[in-house]
Amino acid sequence: MKKRNKDFTGDTLYKLFVYVALITLVVVIIVPVGWVFLASLKENSQFYGNPWVLPNGLHFENFVNAWNAANMGSYMLNSAIVTALALCLLLVVALPAAYCLSRFRFRGSKFLNICFMAGLFINVNYIVVPIFLMLKDGDAWLKSAFGSTFLLNNLFVLAVVYAATALPFTIYLLSGYFATLPHAFEEAAYIDGAGYGRTMIQIIFPMAKPSIITIILFNFLSFWNEYIISMTLMSSSKGAKTLPVGLLNLMQTSQAKTDFGQLYAGLVLVMLPTLILYICVQKKLTQGMTVGGLKG
């Protein structure tokens, strides 16, 4: 009886600790985000008093000013274009590559796996300068040969760089998921007359939907919030900057004009798409991280 009481007390204390830790984590995350949303609706005079005071009205003109005067609408469109292009390029390359590396053994497959695994240990920020110099030299050659440049200050090239830098992690995650799927599905498809390509697209990819949604979400967040590569490769372009670079310009302008409401409205515009996407796919995200193997 005493042992049961001790076990009950231990379980109760453990659950209490877990609940306290989770509630603390939720508060630490939600309070700053909620404060930014409230600050985006305040007028400038309220920022010089108590920072925790509620807005005296819904000043949506902050969003209008951030969208139009600060050109955040154009920056958001550029980010949407680059992110969509990068995700499409990434999926077109990574899905077949991960499938082949995880399901087939051929000459050089082990070496390719090692190369992609090695890419996981390369911090993209450390190779931004070599990428910039390489593209700059390419532009110099294009200008001498054709009279125009193409590689720098180009949204499509920026999307290609994003997709290339995300390949190691994406292939690693997808390969691990594909490897857990039974070969019986492919064998049944081959018996029915399906080829390798049809089996991959119609059988394997639908089964790996949770994992595919997971890598789409992770890479969307990475591409949407990326700053250093965009700032480096789009340094000479005024109208083709992405949202994080545009947000820096907005911060500098808002601080000079002390227009803090417009600044926080810009922050909300950056956060809102990622929050909406996460809310929509959070269940699939959990499945992609935990589910593998045969589904009943």
Keywords:
296 residues, mainly alpha, MetI-like fold, 75% helix, 0% strand, globular
What does this structure look like?
- By secondary structure, the chain is mainly α.
- It has a single domain, classed as MetI-like fold (Orthogonal Bundle).
- Helix 3 runs parallel beside helix 6, helix 6 packs antiparallel against helix 9 and helix 9 packs antiparallel against helix 12.
- It is globular and about 70 Å long.
Concise description?
The chain has helices at 2-39, 61-68, 72-103, 109-119, 128-146, 155-179, 184-191, 196-207, 209-225, 228-233, 243-257, 260-290. It has 296 residues and is an all-alpha fold. The longest helix has 38 residues, at 2-39.
Task: Give the structural class.
Answer: mainly alpha
> Can you say what the CATH homologous superfamily is?
MetI-like
Largest sheet, described in full?
none
Average residue-wise pLDDT = 83
Summed up, the domain count is 1
Report the top-level CATH class. Answer: Mainly Alpha
Shape: globular
CATH architecture: Orthogonal Bundle
Distance between the termini: 43 Å
> What's the total number of strands?
0
User: Into which percent range does the helicity of residues fall?
Assistant: over 70%
Task: Compute the CA-based radius of gyration.
Answer: 25 Å
Q: Give me the strand/helix succession.
A: HHHHHHHHHHHH
Strand content: under 5%
Residue runs with pLDDT of under 50 for 5 or more positions? 292-296
**Count of runs of 4 or more consecutive helical residues:** 12
CATH topology: MetI-like fold
